[in-house]
Amino acid sequence: MSLSKAVRPMAFAGLLLGMGLALGACSFSPVYSGALADQPMLNLAYAKPNSRLEQVIYQELSLRFAASSAETAPLAKVSASRSVTTEARSVTANPGKPRAVTVTATLTITKRDGTQSAPVTITRSATAEYTHSDQIMANNAAVSDAEERAAKAAAESLRLGVLAALSR
Length: 168
What we know:
Layout: H1 2-25, E1 43-46, H2 52-64, E2 66-67, E3 75-85, E4 97-110, E5 120-132, H3 136-167
Parallel strand pairs: 1-2, 1-3
Antiparallel strand pairs: 3-4, 4-5
């Protein structure tokens, strides 16, 4: 019995040491490191927004990618549109009716460094649901909030599309 009591702490220490060595061999690298971080396409110049939805998308993209004011920086231009559906995914007897806003955004990145390469065009859409009621102010606030949530989701999808396009 005394031998097993002496072996247990050593076995436990050996197990912890082995797990530490195994995890130490693993490596994690962030998305923005390595060859992808050195891409000059990630330093974007942004066009002026024409609507609130485009402004939200530009803000989200500029938070994720570097913004540049250089004349040769690739120009990112977004066009966004929204559509409201009166039927959402669920039906209820409540006076608040579920509805959904879909934002469709197209991002075009044009190189301005003198090369004749084709622009990168990515289109994504995102949907956000809200509740429609008999109160006009509440409806306006709900639609505005749903539009902004859908625009942020579309911007995130555009960001991932840009990273996928640049990693090829």
